[in-house]
Description:
Layout: H1 4-14, E1 18-22, H2 50-55, H3 57-76, H4 81-91, E2 97-100, H5 106-109, E3 117-119, E4 122-129, E5 135-137, H6 138-146, E6 162-166, H7 175-187, E7 190-194, H8 206-212, E8 216-221, E9 233-236, H9 239-250
Amino acid sequence: MRAAKDLLRDMVMAAEKTVAFTGAGISTECGIPDFRSPGGLWTKNQPIQFDEFVASRAARDEAWRRKFAMEDKFRAARPGRGHRALARLVQQGKLSAVITQNIDNLHQRAGLPADRVIELHGNATRARCLTCAKPYERERVQEWLDAGVAVPVCDPPCGGLIKPHTIMFGEAMPRDALEEAERRARASDLFVVVGSSLVVYPAAYMPLHAKDAGAALAIVNLTETPHDDQADVLVRGSAAGVLTAVVDRLQPRPVAP
Length: 257
Ligand code: NAD
């Protein structure tokens, strides 16, 4: 029987519109823990809900404190082999877009053009005002936090609450990104999930949209997901190892003289 990753390589070769869908599992090898693996972030902290952030000063303090605590991990992380493999697939014209649940900016840092990355849950390198939507770069907010400002607020005259540009539980998803992701999923002929538990909705509908519209579905993950029974190919393995093997074997073989 053919190995699942060989099958995946053949599917990528044959497909004309492959879309990847990534989760925290593609970044664990870069030193950023996921949520649900043993030792993952949720074993340490319960998530803060959006309405708590808006209503409670203590919740905002805690949200920024956590962001501050995670900052070193995010800053130190470099794109891994999985991110680089996906960027190479885009360069080779074998991948049309990456829909990601990740907030770590590592796809872009691996060389993926921003317009090929659809971020469903925001991006930790940015913040924005909840009142006027003014964007703030992480560095600027970081300077305030470093200077002892517990809860940053927007420039005058606005004064609105600034919130990390990562979507909290209970917060509306970015509508444009969600619509674009669904459109891309439905237009794909191969949809490849990489490193996601597929339990966070509405993001986890994306593979189902793709499947419903006729795409083949591949899932590359270390552990089971609730959509495994929908997959045309299931690869149990590390994102970096599997994607690198797929991309390396897509290279044209050298022709003997
Ligand atoms: P998750 O934590 O629910 O699931 C991660 C999955 O990846 C698990 O099923 C795990 O078995 C698998 N995995 C772990 N390491 C892997 C590896 N090396 N190769 C292949 N698979 C691996 O993450 P999720 O499905 O992305 O959803 C949780 C939410 O977490 C998302 O909304 C996302 O915004 C947020 N999150 C993001 C980051 C990040 O940006 N790096 C980190 C933590 C959480």
